[in-house]
Amino acid sequence: MAKDSSVDYYWGPLIQCKPIVTSSSKFLVVALGSALRIFSTSSGSLLRILRGHNHEVVGFALLDDAEDNFISCDESGKLCRWSLQVDVKRSPLVQTCNLLEQYTKNKCKVVNFVSSGNLKAVVFGVLEEDKDLEKLIVYTSKSGSKMKGLRRSYLKSSVKLGHGKIALSPNGDFVVWLKKQELRVKSLVSADYRRHFVGVREITCMACHPSKLSVATGDCTGRVLLWYQLYKQPVKTELHWHSLPVSDLAFSRTGAELYSGGAECVLVKWQITEGKKHFLPRLGMPIKYVVTDTKNNKIVCAHIDSAFTVISARDCRLEGSIQGLSLSIDDADPYPAGIVYDPRTRAIVINGKSGHLQFYDLSHNKLLYQLDIVRENFINPERDVKMYNTEVKKVAISPEGTWLATVECRDDFQSSIEIRLKFWQFDSEKQSWFLNTGIELPHDKYVNGLVFDPSSESSSTAVCASCSDDGKFKIWEVFDSSDIYKQSFTWSCQKTGIYRHLPAKAVTIAPDGSLVAAGFANILTIWTPDQCHLKGTLSQPYLKENLLQIEFGRTASCGSMVITRSESWLCGWNLFTCTLSWRVMINSTCMAVDPVTSFVVVFSNKCDAFMFEPRNMQMPTRLENIITSPALCAAFIPREKKVTLSTPWNEESQLFIIDKAQRLKLIEPKGDIHAAEAAIEGLVQKLVQDTVALPAPTPFSSLLAQTRASDVVDRKTSQVGSAAYGVRVQNSSALLAKVLNEARVYRLDDFATLAREYFQLIIPEAVTSKEKMDYEDFETYYKKIGGNPEKKTGEKSDSEMTEKEAKKTEKKNKKKLIERGLNSDFKDLLQIIADD
To answer: In three state form, how does the secondary structure of 539-569 look?
Structure first.
């Protein structure tokens, strides 16, 4: 099956490999997928994006031959040589080659890459995926400075791969690697080779001295060891301050200073010759990489949230920061708030660093700001103890962009759970958010849903709904709390809905604000928001999974449809008929609804996506294998201007997703949608199962199915006015069609209001079989006596007066019965109709 969509652009972690600072100290080079990003170390702005690789970049190395020259390597072993001093109009890509072409063809992937500045030695750490074998491959060159002059000189198997497991001296004289519990050293200019036992403390990182035969190692206990005389019995010097594992080490250009960092969020500067140490604390988030430049001017710390801190090496002072798309440190649930669109700034709002929300402008590719929601200090992890920070779990923004609702939660599974619902208001004068209302413990258990009313037009009429595992959904409304000093608004809970004490797993509000749909366990319930009155419930016996998402159709053609998603089922419910229109068995991870068009997309755990319209069971587009890891959340972002494309779902909105690798991706069409429809029509028919064809699970549904089937047969064989068909009034069909087309079933007050006018049209024109026979007998009698029943005369006979009085009395009695039925329940009304 051909793909008809692809990943056009994506944002993600800038710390997939260790960055470098160029020799001029002006540029910071980082990798994002297969592209390189060049940032300014002084301003922090993104200067250029370099593309030359087809696979993910795994490493960089500075070159000594010219200023701001470096090489990069990707997973396939392809090397690219770059020069940032060339003219802007010229390509900075100078040279490419692939030294590992013979290895990478056999399902091999490069994990580690290090190189000397003079290109006398290049080291690869290669993983053979089919054999699960890790190899160390060394290439050397006598002349240096040219990549094509490198020849393979050393090969070793069963080595440890990953960050900090392989180190190479800057001049290319020796290489150091780890194998089991040994530190192995191999000279690249002689035959010297030694193995040193490191003990049970696992080494987490290494760095070679720039000019001496020495190496520094950091272990899992926070200890830093300096190894000397590597070709003999080594001499060790211990440096210990860190209480947690050392993440990275870096020597200065002269080798007199050593920098270390870890999860304590502190950069430690060790003055080796003097035996002193200095600290730069409170750097925000745990440090993952430490980078120094060749001129000993700057130090760059890369943090686990994809942020970079630029530090002056001379006085150890902060100079600036570079922030990309922030990553979440919670691998289990990275982005619980999903993707939310901010209509005021046209940016997306997602989880940022711990306890923050980040507003990211996709059109200008920059982070606008991070909003501190929890206003708490980050709790550093401890050894063998997991620390729990307060995290933002749910986010919602009002349609006009003036209100922001957040739910934060902290649960250490030992004390009581901490839940706070906060409403933030945007100050247009200060151009910032301020906390308007804070509610402690709005629900007793975890909050599963938070949504604003999409129909609210002003900040004073906003409505918000939340649901929780405590079995309640609540409707929050803003009211005027102004006094003589200032005008203000405050939020409070106005209504609460409960259904059978089941956990409320999802909640949403209709686009016109006329309905609230809440999912209690596996049951879809329909409520009116003004009175919080339960209008009806929708469920099926075989759909036993908890509802995870509920969405309404956004356009007029799909306004009566509600789509629900559980772990294994995707269902479409019709509110006109109050039945299940269609269902699809699919193991899904997330679902998104286009706010502008009628399209809905659902992502499967097999990295596929299905684009469809709720009004029918046809899925017009299947996006096959567009991502490499399952999607965590997705959202349609409206375009600033509509474009004309071959795919209607992408004309007015753009589809963005975040996958499990914490990469934000833009999905763009690739190919013609009509060709895709023809290709997947057979597959969709197999996936979609119509509930009408299923066996009836209960006796009542079986009886209902037989009744509907017999009704269809009767409609084909019976005629208007016949005794078999009963009462058929053609004049009432126009009224019934008008009511069903214009009215929404879930907004009808009661059955009596709807049926009164309908039955008033039925009753006067109804003609039963008995009345028809009486009229024929009356007509026959007049023919015998030579009269004409149709002719009007000034004088009425006694029989004619008696017949009219009887009809008039019968109509009055029927009218009384109908009025009594309308004021009663359905049982009495159906009995009256059956008697007729």
So the answer is: CCCCCCCCCCEEEECCCHHHCCEEEEECCCE
State the burial class of residue 706 (Cβ atoms within 10 Å of its Cβ: 0-12, 13-18, 19+): exposed
Can you tell me the distance from the alpha carbon of 683 to that of 432, in angstroms, rounded to the nearest whole number? 50
∠ at Cα 520 (519, 524), nearest 5°? Answer: 45
- The helix, strand and coil proportions of the chain, stated in percent and rounded to the nearest 5, come to 15, 40, 45
DSSP code at position 777: H
Find the distance separating the first CA and the last CA of the chain, reported in whole Å.
Answer: 60
One-letter amino acid at 284 equals G
- CA 808, 812, 814, 815 dihedral sign is positive
- pTM passes above 0.70: yes
Alpha carbon of residue 324 to chain centroid = 18
Q: Which residue has the tokens 């206990």?
A: 221
Q: Distance between CA 532 and CA 548 in Å, rounded?
A: 22
Residues 467 and 447: beta-carbon distance below 8 Å: yes
Separation between Cα atoms, residue 465 and residue 452, nearest integer Å: 6
320-372 pLDDT per residue, tens: 999 888 888 877 788 999 999 999 999 999 999 899 999 999 888 888 999 99
Report how far residue 406's alpha carbon sits from residue 330's, in angstroms, rounded to the nearest whole number: 18
Across the range 421-432, mean pLDDT stands at 94
C-alpha to C-alpha distance for 691 and 617, rounded to whole angstroms: 12
How far, in Å, CA of 45 to CA of 321, rounded?
10
The predicted-structure confidence for 302-321, as pLDDT tens digits, reads as follows 999 999 999 999 888 999 99
- Contacts of the segment 141-147: beta carbons below 8 A, 24+ positions apart: 144/118, 144/119, 144/120, 144/172, 145/63, 145/65, 145/118, 145/119, 146/119, 147/71, 147/79, 147/81, 147/95, 147/97, 147/99, 147/119, 147/122
- Element housing 4 (H / E): none
User: Measuring CA to CA, how many Å separate 56 from each of 14, 30, 35, 91, 196?
Assistant: 12, 12, 8, 20, 34
Rounded to whole angstroms, how far apart are CA atoms 636 and 625? 19
Phi first, then psi: give them for residue 90, nearest 5 degrees.
-95, 155
**Counting beta carbons within 10 angstroms of the beta carbon of residue 546, is it exposed (0 to 12), middle (13 to 18) or buried (19 or more)?**
middle
Q: List the 182-187 sheet strands across, edge first.
A: 166-168, 174-179, 182-187, 193-197
Query: Distance between CA atoms of 469 and 442, rounded to whole angstroms?
Result: 12
Rounded Cα distance between 789 and 799, Å, is 11
Instruction: Report the distance separating Cα 258 and Cα 265, nearest Å.
Output: 17
Nearest to 617 by CA among 563, 653, 654, 539: 563
DSSP code per residue over 633-668: EEEEEE-SS----S-GGGTSEEEEEEETT--EEEEE
Q: How far apart are CA 504 and CA 317, in angstroms?
A: 51
Q: What is the pLDDT of residues 4-29, one digit of tens each?
A: 555 556 788 899 999 999 999 999 99
- Cα–Cα dist 153/632, whole Å: 45
Q: In what order do the strands lie in the sheet with 347-351?
A: 340-342, 347-351, 356-361, 366-372
| Nearby residues of 649 by Cβ (< 8 Å), 6 or more positions away | 594, 597, 599, 601, 611, 620, 621, 655
